[in-house]
Amino acid sequence: MEENKYVYKKPKKKITPFGVFNTVLFILISIIILIPIWKVLVDSFDATTGYGMNFWPKQFTIDGYRMIVTRSDLYRPFFISVIVTVAGTFFGLLLSTLGAYVLIQWEMPGRNLFSYMLLFTMLFNGGMIPTYLVMANILHLTNTLWSVILPLAINVYNLVLMRNFFEGIPGSLFEAASIDGCSPIGTFFKIVLPLSKAALASIGLMYAVTFWNDYTNFKIYIVKTELFNFQMKLRNMVMDSDTPVEVGVVSMNTVQNAAIIVAIIPFMIIYPFCQDYFVHGVNVGAVKE
Amino acid sequence: MLCKACNTDIPKKAKKCPKCGWTVRKDPKNIKPIAIAGAVISFIGGLLPFIQDSTSRNYKVAYSFMNYDNKAMWYIFMLLLVASVILCAVKYEKFSIITTVLAAVIFGITYNNICGQYGAPDMMVGLAMPVIIVGTVLGVAGCFLDVLKLKKKPEVDQRYLGNSRTVWQKMYIHRWFYVMALPVIIFVILFNYLPMAGLRYAFMSYKLGADPSYVGISQFLVMFSKKLFWQAFTNTLVISIVKLILNTFMAVIISILLNEMTNIVFKKSVQTIIYLPHFMSWVVVASIFTMMLSRSESGFINQLLMKLHLTDAPLSFLDNSKRWRGVYYLINIWKDTGWGTILFLATLSGISPELYEAAQIDGANRFNRMRYITLPALANTIITVFILNLAKVMNLFESVFVLQNDAVIEVSDVIQTYVYRQSFGGGIPDYGYTTAVGLFRSIISCVLVLLCNFASKKVRGRGIV
Q1: Which of A124, A142, A223, B435 is least surrounded by CB atoms within 10 angstroms?
Q2: Do B276 and A36 form a contact (C-beta atoms < 8 A)?
Q3: In 3-state terms, what secondary structure has residue A232?
Q4: Residue B395 contacts by C-beta under 8 Å, 6 or more apart in sequence?
Q5: What is the DSSP track for B49-98?
Q6: Closest approach of chain A CAs to the CA of B184, in angstroms?
Q7: How near does any CA of chain B get to the CA of A36, in Å?
């Protein structure tokens, strides 16, 4: 044994006090993160009102969800959210890929001007009220869904992120394409977009989360209740007790809990499968900005 | 004689450098006299009203062609002209362009005033106006030519360069890219630059339903005298900076501990769980916690505290101004800490395991390995994250807006929520005032971004914008 003292041995996996502490700590953290979500989920199935501390529905019911799918003032906001998310993600991806593709043309006269024009908006902006006044008085977009789709669709941060992805495409590919007679627009569709599927997924998901979770723009630009998205409806239900009357068998709280679950369920389902895209996007954004 | 482009010796009478094709020319003439002459002419023009005034008016109105009420503009104009002449004389001609252009701008503004709403009806300016215009144009043009001359690159014959093209040829080659840039440019102009033009309302009184009218800087004076504004301003700084420090600290701790985890499956599932809350909107988070913290029987936290005998009666959290900030920070930690660990974990996974093995052989225990390997490796990332987020401290809005209520306004009101309530919270809003508050916020935010950019360049050699 003595002669082996200075030979490095990979430590065997053994249970150390630190390892136990660490495992317990992270189980605790996970529980803390999950309890609020679990409570909402349980309460959304519970027909009784005083939920208290139970972690399982006392009186199981799906009437909360039935209410959301049957009442038009509850499922309409859901579809508005879906429309805004799909349209917004489309416009966002379109603008950021176009802008990023122009930004990697180093030879193009005026490219720097374009770049400064975009970067300046990251430095300085008009702020809430002038933007609102432009929307209301010049573009006349308030109380239309365009007012929540278009301003968020031009996100300079995501555009720069997309440029960082595009810069990873080898320049020889562009040269080869132009020698073979491919037009810039053809190159864009046949080479750039197919090669950056990961980037499109990453940034598309970011846009989708932003649009799905949008509340501020709706609050500022939309007054008509028919155009409220699900976040607005949820907020009104929880805060201003704007719950549908004649709730019937279920209590207000159950419907609210069910609404919260409906609001988070799309990304809770998508997210575990796309976790790597999200993480990748965050890392690229900070490492090469 | 040396070639200016490539530094080789060239024969005296040669017209082109044999090596690189630089065209031999004499140095461009000094254009400084034009700028000086322009400034002097403008100066004389500024004095003209004193001597040519023949009729009833006295000296007091003589310089009123600049501004009927205020002589200050005239003095500034004259001082700037003198300054630009001096700057030219002491060979700082690069800077004289600033003073000359400023003088021209002041002249332009005040001249407009005469023609426009502040017109002085019984004014007799006479020759002064054309003289000043000629002088200012000459001065500005001279300064510009001077600067351009300094920047001129050595001219090299096109034949000696490989595939150089003229700007027009390049533009023609890239014509489709301009088409592709067009939608982005239109969007940026509509949604970013038009609102910037709207910042002029900060200098106006713009009540809903009335026409805007210029009131100068009085909106800012009103703003600085309001207690509510200063309350919102300090709240913004305190809340966002404490939040930033707490979140970063927690994220660092959690990522270091998570990195020590050897079981990959366990680590992955913990990561998946702690990233979850990031995908919930603030509305959802606020709804969940409003229910969790409720005082009624359905409030989980209060029930838990009572069961543990930590409290006898249900406590109020979100509508208690003493506890609001603490609860707000905790909710923020719950929502964003996990997401914040991504960058730290990426850095940690980049540390070579050999370092740890070497340290282990040298007898470093777990704590020492963390102290001497992990933390120094993380330091740069911590600073980066800190800088990136410090630039955003003035943007605080939605998270506060959905969690605040009337009972806790004085501890929770931040600039953005203040602007929102002043504009849309009932009553007749003065968009001029709220724009002024917004402009103040934008300027502070811009300064912060520039400072962070500077810090970022110092620390990691790359800016953030």
Answers
A1: A223
A2: no
A3: helix
A4: B416, B445
A5: HHHH--SS--HHHHGGGT-SS-SHHHHHHHHHHHHHHHHHHTT-HHHHHH
A6: 6
A7: 7
In DSSP terms, B22 is beta-bridged to B156
Contact B282 A286 (CB under 8 A): no
How far away is chain A from the Cα of B41, in angstroms, using its nearest Cα?
36
Closest-CA residue to B229 (of B441, B444, B450): B441
Kindly report the average pLDDT of chain B as a whole number: 80
- Inter-residue contact A165 to A245 (CB < 8 Å): no
Contacts of A25 in chain B (CB under 8 A): 257
Apex B65 CA angle, B64 and B71, nearest 5: 40
Q: How far apart are CA A283 and CA A281, in angstroms?
A: 5
DSSP B2: B
Contact B181 A35 (CB under 8 A): no
Q: What is the CATH number of domain A72-286?
A: 1.10.3720.10
Q: Which fold has domain B227-429?
A: MetI-like fold (1.10.3720)
The ipTM estimated for the assembled molecules is: 0.88
Q: Output the tens digit of pLDDT for each of chain A's 289 residues.
A: 455 666 666 666 677 888 888 899 999 999 999 999 998 898 888 877 666 677 788 878 888 888 888 887 888 899 999 999 999 999 999 999 999 999 988 888 888 889 989 988 888 888 889 999 999 888 888 889 999 999 999 888 889 889 888 888 888 888 888 888 888 888 888 888 988 888 899 899 999 999 999 999 999 999 988 889 999 988 888 876 655 555 566 677 788 888 899 999 988 888 888 888 888 888 777 654 4
Where do the domains of chain B lie?
Answer: 32-159+173-218, 227-429
Burial class (CB in 10 A: 0-12, 13-18, 19+), A26: buried
Measured CA to CA, the distance from residue A126 to residue A149 in angstroms comes to 18
Helix axes A17-44, B264-275, angle to 10 degrees: 40
Q: Which among B66, B50, B48, B47 has a CA at the least distance from the CA of B111?
A: B66
Q: Measured between CA atoms, how close is A234 to chain B, in angstroms? A: 8
CA–CA separation, A237 vs A248, rounded Å? 16
pTM over 0.80: no
pLDDT tens-digit series, residues A236-267: 888 766 555 555 666 777 888 888 999 999 88
Chain B hits for A268, CB-CB cut-off 8 Å, are 276, 279
Question: Are B96 and B115 a contacting pair, CB within 8 Å?
Answer: no
For residue A140, the chain B residues in CB contact (below 8 A) are none
**CB count in 10 Å sphere of residue B402:** 25
Mutate to test the interface with B, among A6, A129, A210, A276 (most CBs of B within 10 A): A129
Task: Tokens for B209, please give them.
Answer: 């339903």
Q: Which of A271, A162, A59 is nearest to B279 (CA)?
A: A271
Q: Among partner residues A99, A214, A272, which is closest to B272 by beta-carbon distance?
A: A272
Region of B79 on the Ramachandran plot (φ > 0 left; ψ -120 to 50 alpha; else beta): alpha
Greatest alpha-carbon span in chain A = 86
Helix axes B93-115, B32-52, angle to 10 degrees: 30
A positions 147-176 inside 8 Å of B (CB): 150-151, 153-154, 156, 159
Query: Can you tell me which residue has the tokens 């605040």?
Result: B404
- Delimit the domains of chain A by residue range: 17-60, 72-286
Taking contacts as CB-CB distances below 8 angstroms, the residues of chain B near A105 are 174, 177
